[in-house]
Amino acid sequence: MDLIEFIIIAVKAFLVLQSLQILAAVTTWVERKAAALIQDRMGANRASILGFDLAGVINTLVADPVKAIFKEDFVPRGTTQFMHSLGPFLAAFPVFVSFAVIPFGPPLVIGDYTISLQLANLNAGILFMFAMGSLAVYGVVLAGWVGQNKFSLFGGLRASAQMISYEITMGISIVGVLAFYQTLDFNQIVAQQSGTIGGFLPNWGIFQAGPFNVIAFILFFISMMAETKRAPFDLPESESELVAGYMTEYSGMKFLLFWLGEFAEIVVAAAVVTVLFFGGWQVPYFDITTIPAFPLNGEIFGWSYSFMFQSAPLIGAVCFGAKVFFFCVLQVIIRWTLPRFRYDQLMNLCWKGMLPISIINMLATVIMLLWLTQ
Fold first, then answer.
1. pLDDT, tens digit, for every residue of 130-163?
2. N or C: which end of the chain has fewer CB atoms below 10 A?
3. How many CA atoms lie less than 13 Å away from 178 in the CB half-sphere?
């Protein structure tokens, strides 16, 4: 690996991490304002800088982090600072790593280098994403255990049972989609969603395989929302029963790391749904890869530059970001619209409702594909 390739990887890692953090932070602001609108109140608008509150942005992105930084860090008796800190780290780190396999635009060509707008171009990206999502449960269970009280422990047990249950449905629900595309590579899945179906519908995953992929999308989206542990699936931290569940004994920046990881999960869920079912960075009814590049020449501080500017990667990234933001907002609206389930209702929904439907839908999709290939 030469120096240029190392710089490209470093820049991509920085941009991917910052993009996820920015989207997660913006989603926290959307959450507060959407909750206020749904509940017919003003929302976060008290904190300001020089009289400007920027519609609550100062509250969410400035005041709250500053407050969390200066909050006292409590560690329960009977555990160590290392184990107490390991919980939020293990809960958030896999979420950020999983975003590395998400493609957010077509390749960018600069000189002799073709830059993939994806941090890690894995041919089994969907398996990597599932693996990282499964690891996040360890941080939640560890946080519940080191909390040294029954509320934290109950929250950790609930979270582990809930996440394992819904991951089964989530995995089975997209088997038919993967069978249709015959690949586990996110890049190839997005590439196959260009064009239209019959000149009318975008050639997106949700419109393939008749009604079966619509059912798969609904099941997958519900399962991803359950993975984020947010209402109506927030039983691991339900304040009416468990104070704050597995996060009861956390404060300050550790609590904020749990919070950031939760909203990062919302972004990752929206990104995966976009890639599998809604064309990823593809623009409907228009192939952006056909947009020709045009030369840019100039001079900066005595350094002359000349290169072919490509607008397709920029347009693709903006389109992908718009789709992801839409599904983030949709999750926020659902969170503040539906009431919380009881825990037995939550588990019954998965094991007695969604899991059998996902298995039947998977079998029907595979049978249809086998019949079409005869």
1. 888 888 888 888 888 888 888 888 888 888 888 8
2. C
3. 17
